[in-house]
Amino acid sequence: MMLAMSDAMYDQPHQFEPLLPSAVQQEPLLAKAHDLARAATQLAGLPVAPELRGLLRGMNSYYTNRIEGQHTRPHEIEAALRKDFSADQALAAKQRLAVAHIEAEAATEQRCVGDAGARWLYSVDAVSALHRELFARLPAADLTTPEGQAIVPGQLRQRDVTVGQHVAPAHGSVPAFIERWAGFFMAKFAVARRHCWRWQPRISAWAGSTRSSTAMAA
Fold first, then answer.
1. Who contacts 95 (Cβ-Cβ below 8 Å, separation ≥6)?
2. Among 8-12, 65-69, 98-102, 198-202, which is the least confidently predicted range?
3. CA proximity to 126, closest of 169, 186, 166
4. Domain boundaries along the sequence of the chain
């Protein structure tokens, strides 16, 4: 959706701070993450990782598109993965987008391996690349907004938009927002490496970056 009033837009990077919850808010989340990591060790040596990745890709596609108003239900995603698309053209377009998300995530997992992959994922170039990876998988008929504006895979948007109820940053300020986001998380990555933490840029990282790239570039 395009906005009629420019004064409703965000145009300064500080307006989407903080980029992480406060230390107090993080504490219970980190405790849960610690418990989850310990529990996951019970799966070591078992051939469950590929199956879980597949399930999580579908889950990420479901929730990401639901956030952005492109809602498809799980059984509709499963049907689309079997190439069984709805006769309803609007629903079929959403199904194709869901499948594109799943395929693009799988491709990104292959690209983002090790420390170099993590560094790339939290970079300015990654936003455009992730957008391209996703939308280049769609047919030309699906690369148009409801307002008739073209979606160019990998290109930062040239207009002001909303995504559902979210007011996206003013299009002219998008590069500054992306640079702030990338710089912040690259600094966090550097700190993590100094403490010998192993970052795995997998499912949650992809989902957050896809949402960011869609809001920035679509």
1. 72, 76, 77, 79, 80, 85, 86
2. 198-202
3. 186
4. 48-217
CA distance 2 to 160: 6
Please provide residue 131's backbone torsions phi and psi, each rounded to the nearest 5 degrees: -60, -45
H-state helical runs in the chain: 23-40, 49-67, 74-81, 89-111, 114-121, 124-135, 174-194, 203-217
User: In Å, how far are 97, 114, 168, 174, 187 from 127, measured between CA atoms?
Assistant: 18, 19, 15, 11, 17
Quick one: tokens of 60?
A: 């990420």
Structure tokens given for 211: 């949402």
Query: Has this prediction a pTM greater than 0.90?
Result: no
Give the Å distances, CA to CA, from 58 to 42, 64, 98, 130. Answer: 24, 10, 8, 17
pLDDT score, position 196: 47
Q: DSSP for 74-99, please give it.
A: HHHHHHHHTT---SSHHHHHHHHHHH
The amino acid sitting at 35 is D
- Which residue reads 């690209």 in tokens? 111
